[in-house]
Protein backbone atom coordinates (compact mmCIF):
# COMPACT_ATOMS: atom_id res chain seq x y z
CA UNK A 1 0.00 0.00 0.00
CA UNK A 2 2.93 2.31 0.69
CA UNK A 3 3.69 1.90 -3.00
CA UNK A 4 0.45 3.51 -3.97
CA UNK A 5 0.58 6.17 -1.27
CA UNK A 6 4.01 7.38 -2.36
CA UNK A 7 3.03 7.08 -6.00
CA UNK A 8 -0.32 8.81 -5.54
CA UNK A 9 0.71 11.49 -8.02
CA UNK A 10 1.11 8.62 -10.49
CA UNK A 11 -2.28 7.20 -9.55
CA UNK A 12 -3.89 10.58 -9.97
CA UNK A 13 -2.48 11.08 -13.43
CA UNK A 14 -3.42 7.50 -14.40
CA UNK A 15 -7.02 8.20 -13.29
CA UNK A 16 -7.05 11.50 -15.21
CA UNK A 17 -5.79 9.80 -18.39
CA UNK A 18 -8.18 6.85 -18.04
CA UNK A 19 -11.32 8.86 -17.34
CA UNK A 20 -10.45 12.07 -19.15
CA UNK A 21 -11.16 13.89 -15.89
CA UNK A 22 -9.34 16.63 -14.00
CA UNK A 23 -7.27 16.21 -10.82
CA UNK A 24 -10.16 17.20 -8.53
CA UNK A 25 -12.34 14.35 -9.83
CA UNK A 26 -9.40 11.92 -9.62
CA UNK A 27 -8.98 12.95 -5.97
CA UNK A 28 -12.63 12.21 -5.26
CA UNK A 29 -12.08 8.69 -6.60
CA UNK A 30 -8.89 8.19 -4.59
CA UNK A 31 -10.61 9.49 -1.43
CA UNK A 32 -13.47 6.98 -1.86
CA UNK A 33 -11.12 4.04 -2.59
CA UNK A 34 -8.74 1.85 -0.63
CA UNK A 35 -5.43 0.64 -2.03
CA UNK A 36 -4.67 -3.05 -2.13
CA UNK A 37 -1.80 -5.10 -3.52
CA UNK A 38 -1.96 -8.70 -4.69
CA UNK A 39 1.03 -11.01 -5.05
CA UNK A 40 1.84 -12.74 -8.30
CA UNK A 41 -0.55 -15.70 -8.84
CA UNK A 42 -2.99 -14.45 -6.18
CA UNK A 43 -6.65 -14.92 -7.07
CA UNK A 44 -8.12 -11.41 -6.82
CA UNK A 45 -11.72 -12.42 -7.53
CA UNK A 46 -13.18 -15.94 -7.56
CA UNK A 47 -15.67 -17.07 -10.18
CA UNK A 48 -19.12 -17.17 -8.57
CA UNK A 49 -18.27 -14.53 -5.94
CA UNK A 50 -20.87 -11.81 -5.51
CA UNK A 51 -18.96 -8.57 -5.22
CA UNK A 52 -19.99 -4.96 -4.82
CA UNK A 53 -16.58 -3.38 -5.51
CA UNK A 54 -14.91 -2.09 -8.64
CA UNK A 55 -11.17 -2.79 -8.99
CA UNK A 56 -9.03 -0.22 -10.79
CA UNK A 57 -5.64 -1.56 -11.94
CA UNK A 58 -2.79 0.76 -10.95
CA UNK A 59 0.21 -1.49 -11.59
CA UNK A 60 0.90 -5.02 -12.77
CA UNK A 61 -1.16 -7.39 -14.88
CA UNK A 62 -4.17 -9.62 -14.24
CA UNK A 63 -6.26 -12.06 -16.21
CA UNK A 64 -9.84 -13.23 -16.24
CA UNK A 65 -9.58 -16.99 -16.76
CA UNK A 66 -11.96 -19.87 -17.34
CA UNK A 67 -11.16 -23.55 -17.79
CA UNK A 68 -11.84 -25.73 -20.80
CA UNK A 69 -13.46 -29.18 -20.65
CA UNK A 70 -9.97 -30.71 -20.60
CA UNK A 71 -9.02 -28.49 -17.66
CA UNK A 72 -6.84 -26.18 -19.76
CA UNK A 73 -6.66 -22.53 -18.84
CA UNK A 74 -8.38 -20.11 -21.20
CA UNK A 75 -7.93 -16.37 -20.93
CA UNK A 76 -11.18 -14.43 -21.28
CA UNK A 77 -9.84 -10.97 -20.46
CA UNK A 78 -6.52 -9.22 -19.79
CA UNK A 79 -6.23 -6.30 -17.38
CA UNK A 80 -3.43 -3.73 -17.32
CA UNK A 81 -2.95 -0.37 -15.55
CA UNK A 82 -5.97 1.83 -16.23
CA UNK A 83 -8.32 -1.13 -16.66
CA UNK A 84 -11.28 -1.80 -14.41
CA UNK A 85 -13.07 -4.99 -13.39
CA UNK A 86 -15.57 -6.20 -10.80
CA UNK A 87 -18.92 -4.55 -10.10
CA UNK A 88 -20.25 -1.30 -11.54
CA UNK A 89 -23.26 -0.68 -9.33
CA UNK A 90 -26.75 -1.35 -10.53
CA UNK A 91 -28.88 -3.91 -8.79
CA UNK A 92 -26.75 -5.10 -5.89
CA UNK A 93 -23.61 -7.25 -5.99
CA UNK A 94 -22.78 -8.85 -9.32
CA UNK A 95 -21.86 -12.53 -9.70
CA UNK A 96 -18.38 -12.79 -11.19
CA UNK A 97 -18.16 -14.88 -14.33
CA UNK A 98 -14.44 -15.70 -14.25
CA UNK A 99 -11.52 -16.05 -11.83
CA UNK A 100 -9.34 -12.96 -11.92
CA UNK A 101 -5.72 -13.84 -11.25
CA UNK A 102 -2.64 -11.63 -10.83
CA UNK A 103 -0.14 -12.56 -13.56
CA UNK A 104 2.37 -10.15 -12.05
CA UNK A 105 2.17 -8.34 -8.71
CA UNK A 106 -0.87 -6.08 -8.86
CA UNK A 107 -1.51 -2.74 -7.17
CA UNK A 108 -5.16 -1.78 -7.27
CA UNK A 109 -7.63 0.80 -6.03
CA UNK A 110 -10.82 -0.78 -4.72
CA UNK A 111 -13.91 1.38 -4.72
CA UNK A 112 -17.48 0.47 -3.83
CA UNK A 113 -19.47 0.33 -7.04
CA UNK A 114 -22.16 2.55 -5.49
CA UNK A 115 -19.58 5.21 -4.59
CA UNK A 116 -18.12 5.12 -8.11
CA UNK A 117 -21.64 5.42 -9.53
CA UNK A 118 -22.27 8.53 -7.41
CA UNK A 119 -19.11 10.16 -8.76
CA UNK A 120 -19.97 9.11 -12.34
CA UNK A 121 -23.47 10.54 -11.98
CA UNK A 122 -21.91 13.90 -11.12
CA UNK A 123 -19.11 13.84 -13.69
CA UNK A 124 -20.30 12.72 -17.12
CA UNK A 125 -16.77 12.03 -18.38
CA UNK A 126 -16.43 9.06 -15.99
CA UNK A 127 -19.43 7.10 -17.27
CA UNK A 128 -18.52 7.96 -20.83
CA UNK A 129 -14.95 6.73 -20.38
CA UNK A 130 -16.22 3.56 -18.67
CA UNK A 131 -18.64 2.96 -21.54
CA UNK A 132 -15.84 3.27 -24.08
CA UNK A 133 -13.58 0.90 -22.15
CA UNK A 134 -16.38 -1.64 -21.82
CA UNK A 135 -17.38 -1.31 -25.48
CA UNK A 136 -13.77 -2.04 -26.49
CA UNK A 137 -13.70 -5.09 -24.19
CA UNK A 138 -17.02 -6.30 -25.52
CA UNK A 139 -15.67 -6.07 -29.07
CA UNK A 140 -12.57 -8.02 -28.03
CA UNK A 141 -14.71 -10.67 -26.34
CA UNK A 142 -16.85 -11.00 -29.47
CA UNK A 143 -13.76 -11.26 -31.66
CA UNK A 144 -12.40 -14.01 -29.38
CA UNK A 145 -15.72 -15.84 -29.45
CA UNK A 146 -15.70 -15.51 -33.23
CA UNK A 147 -12.13 -16.78 -33.53
CA UNK A 148 -12.81 -19.66 -31.14
CA UNK A 149 -15.78 -20.60 -33.31
CA UNK A 150 -14.47 -19.91 -36.78
CA UNK A 151 -10.68 -20.46 -36.71
CA UNK A 152 -8.44 -23.45 -36.18
CA UNK A 153 -5.95 -23.30 -33.29
CA UNK A 154 -3.22 -22.44 -35.81
CA UNK A 155 -5.39 -19.67 -37.29
CA UNK A 156 -5.96 -18.22 -33.82
CA UNK A 157 -2.21 -18.13 -33.18
CA UNK A 158 -1.71 -16.23 -36.44
CA UNK A 159 -4.58 -13.81 -35.68
CA UNK A 160 -2.98 -13.11 -32.30
CA UNK A 161 0.42 -12.42 -33.92
CA UNK A 162 -1.23 -9.97 -36.32
CA UNK A 163 -2.87 -8.23 -33.34
CA UNK A 164 0.39 -8.02 -31.40
CA UNK A 165 2.41 -6.57 -34.25
CA UNK A 166 2.95 -2.83 -34.39
CA UNK A 167 0.88 -1.38 -37.23
CA UNK A 168 3.78 0.54 -38.77
CA UNK A 169 6.89 -1.55 -38.22
CA UNK A 170 5.06 -4.94 -38.27
CA UNK A 171 7.28 -6.00 -35.39
CA UNK A 172 6.50 -7.45 -31.97
CA UNK A 173 8.87 -6.14 -29.33
CA UNK A 174 9.64 -7.74 -26.91
CA UNK A 175 8.88 -11.09 -28.56
CA UNK A 176 5.78 -12.84 -27.17
CA UNK A 177 6.15 -15.69 -24.69
CA UNK A 178 4.78 -18.70 -26.58
CA UNK A 179 3.13 -20.27 -23.50
CA UNK A 180 1.30 -16.99 -22.89
CA UNK A 181 0.22 -16.65 -26.47
CA UNK A 182 -1.08 -20.26 -26.46
CA UNK A 183 -3.14 -19.66 -23.30
CA UNK A 184 -4.64 -16.49 -24.74
CA UNK A 185 -5.96 -18.26 -27.81
CA UNK A 186 -6.93 -21.45 -26.00
CA UNK A 187 -4.45 -23.93 -27.40
CA UNK A 188 -1.38 -25.85 -26.21
CA UNK A 189 2.18 -24.55 -26.17
CA UNK A 190 3.12 -27.32 -28.60
CA UNK A 191 0.50 -26.36 -31.18
CA UNK A 192 1.39 -22.67 -30.94
CA UNK A 193 5.09 -23.45 -31.24
CA UNK A 194 4.56 -25.67 -34.29
CA UNK A 195 2.40 -22.99 -35.95
CA UNK A 196 5.05 -20.32 -35.37
CA UNK A 197 7.89 -22.54 -36.60
CA UNK A 198 5.94 -23.13 -39.80
CA UNK A 199 5.64 -19.36 -40.35
CA UNK A 200 9.36 -18.89 -39.89
CA UNK A 201 10.22 -21.77 -42.22
CA UNK A 202 8.02 -20.21 -44.91
CA UNK A 203 9.74 -16.84 -44.48
CA UNK A 204 6.55 -15.14 -43.26
CA UNK A 205 8.08 -14.04 -39.97
CA UNK A 206 11.62 -13.52 -38.75
CA UNK A 207 12.57 -14.07 -35.13
CA UNK A 208 15.46 -12.44 -33.29
CA UNK A 209 16.22 -12.12 -29.58
CA UNK A 210 14.81 -8.62 -29.30
CA UNK A 211 11.79 -8.82 -31.58
CA UNK A 212 9.79 -10.74 -34.13
CA UNK A 213 8.98 -9.17 -37.47
CA UNK A 214 6.24 -10.01 -39.94
CA UNK A 215 7.95 -10.04 -43.34
CA UNK A 216 4.95 -11.09 -45.43
CA UNK A 217 1.78 -9.64 -43.88
CA UNK A 218 -0.47 -10.68 -46.76
CA UNK A 219 0.68 -14.30 -46.57
CA UNK A 220 0.14 -14.21 -42.79
CA UNK A 221 -3.39 -12.93 -43.45
CA UNK A 222 -4.04 -15.80 -45.86
CA UNK A 223 -2.94 -18.30 -43.20
CA UNK A 224 -5.63 -17.13 -40.77
CA UNK A 225 -8.43 -19.69 -41.20
CA UNK B 1 -40.59 6.04 -39.60
CA UNK B 2 -44.17 7.13 -39.07
CA UNK B 3 -44.31 4.32 -36.52
CA UNK B 4 -41.71 5.97 -34.39
CA UNK B 5 -43.03 9.48 -34.87
CA UNK B 6 -46.53 8.56 -33.73
CA UNK B 7 -45.12 6.45 -30.93
CA UNK B 8 -42.62 9.10 -29.85
CA UNK B 9 -44.17 9.20 -26.38
CA UNK B 10 -43.29 5.49 -26.19
CA UNK B 11 -39.75 6.17 -27.42
CA UNK B 12 -39.33 8.90 -24.85
CA UNK B 13 -40.41 6.70 -21.98
CA UNK B 14 -38.21 3.84 -23.27
CA UNK B 15 -35.22 6.21 -23.30
CA UNK B 16 -36.08 7.45 -19.79
CA UNK B 17 -36.31 3.90 -18.46
CA UNK B 18 -33.14 2.77 -20.25
CA UNK B 19 -30.96 5.69 -19.21
CA UNK B 20 -32.64 6.61 -15.93
CA UNK B 21 -32.96 10.14 -17.32
CA UNK B 22 -35.79 12.65 -17.37
CA UNK B 23 -37.94 13.60 -20.37
CA UNK B 24 -35.85 16.65 -21.23
CA UNK B 25 -32.71 14.54 -21.67
CA UNK B 26 -34.66 11.93 -23.66
CA UNK B 27 -35.82 14.73 -25.96
CA UNK B 28 -32.24 15.84 -26.52
CA UNK B 29 -31.42 12.31 -27.66
CA UNK B 30 -34.48 12.11 -29.93
CA UNK B 31 -33.66 15.54 -31.42
CA UNK B 32 -30.11 14.41 -32.26
CA UNK B 33 -31.23 11.07 -33.73
CA UNK B 34 -32.94 9.88 -36.88
CA UNK B 35 -35.47 7.03 -36.91
CA UNK B 36 -34.93 4.06 -39.17
CA UNK B 37 -36.77 0.77 -39.65
CA UNK B 38 -35.27 -2.48 -40.90
CA UNK B 39 -37.24 -5.38 -42.37
CA UNK B 40 -37.04 -8.86 -40.95
CA UNK B 41 -33.76 -10.51 -42.02
CA UNK B 42 -32.20 -7.19 -43.07
CA UNK B 43 -28.53 -6.83 -42.22
CA UNK B 44 -28.37 -3.66 -40.11
CA UNK B 45 -24.58 -3.61 -39.75
CA UNK B 46 -22.03 -5.68 -41.67
CA UNK B 47 -19.02 -7.27 -40.00
CA UNK B 48 -15.94 -5.23 -40.92
CA UNK B 49 -17.92 -2.00 -41.48
CA UNK B 50 -16.47 1.11 -39.89
CA UNK B 51 -19.36 2.99 -38.40
CA UNK B 52 -19.66 6.19 -36.39
CA UNK B 53 -23.28 5.78 -35.28
CA UNK B 54 -24.92 4.25 -32.24
CA UNK B 55 -28.14 2.27 -32.85
CA UNK B 56 -30.79 2.33 -30.14
CA UNK B 57 -33.39 -0.47 -30.43
CA UNK B 58 -36.95 0.86 -30.15
CA UNK B 59 -38.92 -2.18 -31.35
CA UNK B 60 -38.23 -5.66 -32.64
CA UNK B 61 -35.28 -7.97 -32.17
CA UNK B 62 -31.79 -8.18 -33.67
CA UNK B 63 -28.78 -10.43 -33.34
CA UNK B 64 -25.04 -10.08 -33.60
CA UNK B 65 -23.96 -13.19 -35.49
CA UNK B 66 -20.72 -14.82 -36.50
CA UNK B 67 -20.15 -18.02 -38.46
CA UNK B 68 -18.42 -21.19 -37.34
CA UNK B 69 -15.77 -23.04 -39.33
CA UNK B 70 -18.50 -25.29 -40.72
CA UNK B 71 -20.50 -22.24 -41.80
CA UNK B 72 -23.06 -22.58 -39.01
CA UNK B 73 -24.58 -19.44 -37.56
CA UNK B 74 -23.50 -18.53 -34.03
CA UNK B 75 -25.22 -15.82 -32.04
CA UNK B 76 -22.79 -13.56 -30.21
CA UNK B 77 -25.32 -11.02 -28.90
CA UNK B 78 -29.08 -10.46 -28.78
CA UNK B 79 -30.62 -6.99 -28.96
CA UNK B 80 -34.11 -6.04 -27.80
CA UNK B 81 -35.88 -2.71 -27.21
CA UNK B 82 -33.73 -0.51 -24.95
CA UNK B 83 -30.47 -2.13 -26.15
CA UNK B 84 -27.74 -0.26 -27.96
CA UNK B 85 -25.12 -1.33 -30.48
CA UNK B 86 -22.69 0.22 -32.94
CA UNK B 87 -20.18 2.92 -32.10
CA UNK B 88 -19.85 4.86 -28.86
CA UNK B 89 -17.50 7.63 -29.89
CA UNK B 90 -13.87 7.60 -28.90
CA UNK B 91 -11.23 7.50 -31.58
CA UNK B 92 -13.19 7.69 -34.82
CA UNK B 93 -15.36 5.01 -36.42
CA UNK B 94 -15.21 1.56 -34.85
CA UNK B 95 -14.80 -1.63 -36.90
CA UNK B 96 -17.79 -3.88 -36.29
CA UNK B 97 -16.94 -7.38 -35.10
CA UNK B 98 -20.17 -9.14 -36.11
CA UNK B 99 -23.05 -8.90 -38.58
CA UNK B 100 -26.12 -7.44 -36.90
CA UNK B 101 -29.28 -8.89 -38.39
CA UNK B 102 -32.96 -8.09 -37.75
CA UNK B 103 -34.66 -11.25 -36.46
CA UNK B 104 -37.99 -9.43 -36.50
CA UNK B 105 -38.79 -6.02 -38.01
CA UNK B 106 -36.68 -3.47 -36.16
CA UNK B 107 -37.40 0.18 -35.38
CA UNK B 108 -34.30 2.04 -34.27
CA UNK B 109 -33.01 5.47 -33.42
CA UNK B 110 -29.64 6.19 -35.02
CA UNK B 111 -27.47 8.78 -33.37
CA UNK B 112 -23.95 9.88 -34.19
CA UNK B 113 -21.67 8.49 -31.52
CA UNK B 114 -20.06 11.92 -31.08
CA UNK B 115 -23.48 13.54 -30.47
CA UNK B 116 -24.41 10.86 -27.93
CA UNK B 117 -21.05 11.40 -26.21
CA UNK B 118 -21.74 15.12 -25.93
CA UNK B 119 -25.08 14.43 -24.25
CA UNK B 120 -23.52 11.81 -21.96
CA UNK B 121 -20.76 14.22 -20.97
CA UNK B 122 -23.44 16.66 -19.80
CA UNK B 123 -25.74 14.12 -18.14
CA UNK B 124 -23.88 11.63 -15.96
CA UNK B 125 -26.77 9.17 -15.82
CA UNK B 126 -26.39 8.37 -19.54
CA UNK B 127 -22.78 7.18 -19.36
CA UNK B 128 -23.50 5.33 -16.15
CA UNK B 129 -26.49 3.51 -17.66
CA UNK B 130 -24.44 2.70 -20.77
CA UNK B 131 -21.64 1.33 -18.58
CA UNK B 132 -24.05 -0.93 -16.74
CA UNK B 133 -25.60 -2.22 -19.96
CA UNK B 134 -22.18 -2.91 -21.40
CA UNK B 135 -20.93 -4.56 -18.22
CA UNK B 136 -23.94 -6.90 -18.29
CA UNK B 137 -23.25 -7.74 -21.95
CA UNK B 138 -19.59 -8.31 -21.24
CA UNK B 139 -20.50 -10.76 -18.47
CA UNK B 140 -22.86 -12.58 -20.83
CA UNK B 141 -20.18 -12.74 -23.52
CA UNK B 142 -17.69 -14.15 -21.00
CA UNK B 143 -20.23 -16.73 -19.80
CA UNK B 144 -20.85 -17.77 -23.42
CA UNK B 145 -17.11 -18.02 -24.08
CA UNK B 146 -16.80 -20.08 -20.91
CA UNK B 147 -19.67 -22.38 -21.90
CA UNK B 148 -18.33 -22.77 -25.43
CA UNK B 149 -14.99 -23.77 -23.92
CA UNK B 150 -16.07 -25.82 -20.92
CA UNK B 151 -19.40 -27.45 -21.79
CA UNK B 152 -20.56 -30.05 -24.31
CA UNK B 153 -23.28 -29.02 -26.80
CA UNK B 154 -25.81 -30.86 -24.63
CA UNK B 155 -24.57 -29.04 -21.51
CA UNK B 156 -24.91 -25.69 -23.30
CA UNK B 157 -28.52 -26.49 -24.24
CA UNK B 158 -29.26 -27.28 -20.58
CA UNK B 159 -27.51 -24.12 -19.34
CA UNK B 160 -29.63 -22.10 -21.78
CA UNK B 161 -32.85 -23.72 -20.52
CA UNK B 162 -31.87 -22.86 -16.95
CA UNK B 163 -31.26 -19.26 -18.02
CA UNK B 164 -34.60 -19.02 -19.84
CA UNK B 165 -36.66 -20.41 -16.96
CA UNK B 166 -38.42 -17.97 -14.67
CA UNK B 167 -36.65 -17.96 -11.28
CA UNK B 168 -39.83 -18.51 -9.29
CA UNK B 169 -42.08 -20.73 -11.38
CA UNK B 170 -39.22 -22.58 -13.16
CA UNK B 171 -41.26 -22.34 -16.34
CA UNK B 172 -40.43 -21.04 -19.81
CA UNK B 173 -43.40 -19.29 -21.36
CA UNK B 174 -43.84 -19.23 -24.33
CA UNK B 175 -41.80 -22.38 -24.99
CA UNK B 176 -38.47 -21.74 -26.74
CA UNK B 177 -38.11 -22.41 -30.46
CA UNK B 178 -35.60 -25.25 -30.65
CA UNK B 179 -33.88 -23.94 -33.78
CA UNK B 180 -33.38 -20.60 -32.04
CA UNK B 181 -32.05 -22.18 -28.91
CA UNK B 182 -29.61 -24.31 -30.93
CA UNK B 183 -28.27 -21.27 -32.79
CA UNK B 184 -27.79 -19.36 -29.54
CA UNK B 185 -25.59 -22.06 -28.03
CA UNK B 186 -23.82 -22.91 -31.29
CA UNK B 187 -25.11 -26.38 -32.00
CA UNK B 188 -27.46 -28.06 -34.50
CA UNK B 189 -31.23 -28.32 -34.17
CA UNK B 190 -30.89 -32.11 -34.07
CA UNK B 191 -28.47 -32.10 -31.13
CA UNK B 192 -30.60 -29.62 -29.19
CA UNK B 193 -33.74 -31.61 -29.90
CA UNK B 194 -32.14 -34.89 -28.76
CA UNK B 195 -30.84 -33.25 -25.58
CA UNK B 196 -34.29 -31.87 -24.74
CA UNK B 197 -36.03 -35.17 -25.48
CA UNK B 198 -33.67 -36.90 -23.07
CA UNK B 199 -34.60 -34.40 -20.32
CA UNK B 200 -38.28 -35.05 -20.86
CA UNK B 201 -37.82 -38.83 -20.86
CA UNK B 202 -36.00 -38.61 -17.54
CA UNK B 203 -38.79 -36.50 -16.03
CA UNK B 204 -36.54 -33.45 -15.58
CA UNK B 205 -38.73 -31.18 -17.69
CA UNK B 206 -42.35 -31.27 -18.78
CA UNK B 207 -43.48 -29.78 -22.08
CA UNK B 208 -46.95 -28.50 -22.89
CA UNK B 209 -48.17 -26.26 -25.72
CA UNK B 210 -48.12 -23.09 -23.62
CA UNK B 211 -44.95 -23.59 -21.59
CA UNK B 212 -42.13 -25.84 -20.50
CA UNK B 213 -41.51 -26.46 -16.83
CA UNK B 214 -38.39 -27.63 -15.06
CA UNK B 215 -39.58 -30.29 -12.60
CA UNK B 216 -36.18 -31.32 -11.22
CA UNK B 217 -33.89 -28.24 -11.18
CA UNK B 218 -31.12 -29.98 -9.26
CA UNK B 219 -30.96 -32.86 -11.74
CA UNK B 220 -30.93 -30.31 -14.59
CA UNK B 221 -28.00 -28.58 -12.86
CA UNK B 222 -26.14 -31.91 -12.63
CA UNK B 223 -26.63 -32.48 -16.36
CA UNK B 224 -24.79 -29.24 -17.23
CA UNK B 225 -21.26 -30.40 -18.08
Tell me what you see in this structure:
The model of chain A is unreliable at 1-6 (pLDDT under 50). The longest helix of chain A is centred in the middle third of the chain and has 27 residues, at 124-150. Chain A contains nine helices and eleven strands. Chain A is an alpha+beta fold. Chain A has two domains: 2-149, Jelly Rolls (Sandwich), CATH 2.60.120; 151-222, Winged helix-like DNA-binding domain superfamily/Winged helix DNA-binding domain (Arc Repressor Mutant, subunit A, Orthogonal Bundle), CATH 1.10.10. In chain A, the strands form three sheets. In chain A, strands 1, 2, 4, 5, 6 and 8 form a six-stranded antiparallel β-sheet that branches. In chain A, strands 9-11-10 form a three-stranded antiparallel β-sheet. Chain A has a two-stranded antiparallel sheet with strand order 3-7. In chain A, helix 2 (8-19) packs across helix 3 (23-32) and helix 6 (153-164) crosses helix 8 (189-201). At the A-B interface, strand 4, strand 5, helix 4 and helix 5 of A face strand 4, strand 5, helix 4 and helix 5 of B.
> On the 0-100 scale, what is the average pLDDT of chain A?
89
**Pair with the most extensive interface?**
A-B, 46 and 46 residues
Q: Which CATH class of the largest domain in chain A?
A: Mainly Beta
Domain tally of chain A = 2
Mind telling me the CATH superfamily name of the largest domain in chain A? Answer: Jelly Rolls
CATH architecture assignment of the largest domain in chain A = Sandwich
Distance between the termini of chain A: 46 Å
What fraction, in percent, of the residue positions of chain A are helical? 40-55%
Number of strands of chain A: 11
Range of strand content of chain A: 25-35%
Give the CATH topology of the largest domain in chain A: Jelly Rolls
**Which H/E pattern describes the elements of chain A?**
HHHEEEEEEEEHHHEHHEEH
Parts with pLDDT < 50 across at least 5 consecutive residues of chain A = 1-6
Q: Which descriptor suits the 3D outline of chain A? A: elongated
Total helices of chain A: the number is 9
Largest sheet of chain A: 6 strands, antiparallel
GO biological process, one term (chains A, B): regulation of DNA-templated transcription
InterPro entries (chains A, B): cNMP-bd_dom, cNMP-bd_dom_sf, HTH_CRP, RmlC-like_jellyroll, WH_DNA-bd_sf
Domain HTH crp-type (chains A, B): 151-218
Domain Cyclic nucleotide-binding (chains A, B): 28-137
Amino acid sequence: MADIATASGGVESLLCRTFGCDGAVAHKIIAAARARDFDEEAVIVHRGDHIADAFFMVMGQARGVVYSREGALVVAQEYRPGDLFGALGGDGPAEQEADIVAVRKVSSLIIEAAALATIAQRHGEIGLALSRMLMTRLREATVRLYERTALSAQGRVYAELRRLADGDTLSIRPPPIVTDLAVRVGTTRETASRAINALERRGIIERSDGSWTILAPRRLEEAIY
